[in-house]
Amino acid sequence: MAIVDQQRDSPIDLTGDVRRRRREAVVKALFFAAAAISILISVAIVVALIGKAWAFLTSIELNQLWGNGWFPRRGRFDLAALLVHTMMVTGIAMLVAVPFGLGSAIYLSEYARSGVRRVLKPTLEILAGIPSVVLGFFALQFITPNVVRGLYPGAQSANFLAAGIAVGILTIPLVASVSEDAMRAVPNSLREASYGLGAKQWHTSLRVVFPAAISGIIAAVILGISRAVGETMIVALAAGLNGIMTFNPTEGGLTMTGAIANLAVGSDQVAGDSAAFQSLFFVGLVLFVLTLGLNVISGRIVRRYRQRY
Amino acid sequence: MTANTAVVTTTDLVRQSIEGKRFSPFNALVAFALLFTLLSSVVILVTLLADTIAAALPVFAARGFDFVTASLSPQAESAGIWQAIMGSLALVGFVIAVAFPFGVAAAVYLEEYAPDNRVTRFINANIRNLAGVPSIVYGILGLFLFVEILMRGVFGASEGIAGRNVVAGGLTLAVLVLPIMIITTSEALRAVPGGLREASLAVGATRWETIRHHVLPVAIPAILTGSVLTIARAFGESAPLLLAGAQLSLFFSVSSDASFADLMLNQPYTALPLVVFNFARQPQAEFVSLTAASIIVLLVMLLTVNAAAVIARDRYERRYR
């Protein structure tokens, strides 16, 4: 019998038979291969971006990258205009997402009873599940005529304000949920100590819990910025196609993602191996490096703050 | 844990007994302001839905369900979204077939097998970073890896749609959601109590037997909920498809006698959110209500799936905590 045989070999051998161990090794190798795919994806992204971005940079004069606007089919690649427009949309988005996202987070973490929480938290989750192209339509058809033109009647039909507000709405749930997690991780002893000293609830939540969670909250905002910089469909619909740098938020213009989208579709549509087509990869590379940098910084901050408590 | 009943924590008791019944106007003002920020999201959501429904009503009133089943067309009066719905379902099929097995397998490795060493930490950090890469960058990846290298290079697709097929689009979306799939599955596995694993290993089960018979059965509801929400995200995603090969015109024809393989490899496709984008870009006023109607169809499909997943999760959480 198997048990007797095994006992004769080694009475304390618990590793099981060869077949079982081989199966174990195969399964483990398969699962490792699945996990390793994520590294292949990263490599593929970098290869895809760098190859043609380099081809683009070597095929143009470097002074084509600055000034004169973004008109890829005419050989004018004004990266500065794209960066300025991206920063404007992102800035407006943060003016919306930071107060509303953080306010929601403080309320959900410090004020809301569990019943209220159970009703209101899913609303944020539903908002987070709305496809961005829907918010782009909302920006075009509702925010521009009713909000932006209410304040600035002369605003262009595609403008940075409407696009920025819509991107901000899209970012609220992200900022809210990450910073709520940060505040809920603050130990209760801090709150109790604050109440014990006679502090009111507003004082406890805004002057004790909020500062205690500040690194997590900063990480949430950085994550929000990264998300806003990379948002495509809203700006493709609602931010306009102007390639000339402008600082006026009631006008529209191409952002980095808007320029990429417009190279794939619309008036800048290109194909083949022209410099205009390759510029798509170059802008993609800039976008990738920028958002990766923001995400890495945000992750660092989160991890450092986790170690403190 | 008793998460269900209205919990009164020690903190609440301390606060209440110290604050007593004294009313502080400023305190109430802050509470109101914070509630206002939260309720704004509700107002925005309601406005968005009401505005879209109002704009969509003429289409549904005039054409009813015909709008859903009619073909794409540049004529607003007769345009429908049938190809887009089919295209989206095909894309989601690829996401389920590719991202779900690989995502779960990768998460099982990282949570159940991986030793805590440099390689594991690198893979984990890499997955977190991939989850933050903008979706349009995945579109560039899809254009390069799946359309240019796989379809044109390996399979030699050069005529017709030249490799801009639904397989390339589906693989692009699968790669896009893979990191999110891994992260949600990892969370589900982490929630399984360690005692379960130890008990199983202690009676002589191997790692794989432990995972298969004890860890996965407990984690599977949470894994499925997370996966459904992740796949719903792929359903609403359109930016990567701009580059990864979906049709961007208002009209294209699919030959009616195409075989399944032909449909997958040689016929043009588009997706529902992308049709929303294309309709929304049209300058003519008739397309506004058409866009809104497409959005309603998109949202109904998305919200049904999302709500089902969230309700299932809540019920599950209540039963097992």
Distance between the termini of chain B: 6 Å
Rg of chain B (CA only): 25 Å
Helix tally of chain A equals 12
Low-confidence stretches of chain B: 1-5
Mean of residue pLDDT of chain B? 87
User: Largest sheet of chain A at a glance?
Assistant: 2 strands, antiparallel
The helix-strand sequence of chain A is: HHEEHHHHHHHHHH
* Mean pLDDT figure of chain A: 88
User: Number of helical segments of chain B?
Assistant: 13
Which structural class do you get from the secondary structure elements of chain A? Answer: mainly alpha
Largest interface: A-B, 100 and 98 residues
Instruction: State the total count of DSSP E strands of chain A.
Output: 2
> What's the total count of β strands of chain B?
0
* Largest beta sheet: strand ordering of chain A: 1-2
> Judging from the principal axes of the Cα atoms, what is the shape of chain A?
flat
User: How helix-rich are the residues of chain A, as a percent range?
Assistant: over 70%
Pick out the low-confidence regions of chain A: none
In what range is the share of β-strand residues of chain A? under 5%
Going by helix content, strand content and strand pairing, the class of chain B is mainly alpha
Q: Shape of chain B from CA axes?
A: flat
Radius of gyration of chain A: 26 Å
Highlighted features:
heterodimer, A: 309 residues, mainly alpha, two-stranded antiparallel sheet, 12 helices, 74% helix, flat, B: 321 residues, 13 helices, 0% strand, disordered N terminus
Explain briefly what this protein structure is.
Chain A has 309 residues and is mainly alpha-helical. In chain A, 74% of the residues lie in helices and 1% in strands. In chain A, strands 1-2 form a two-stranded antiparallel ribbon.
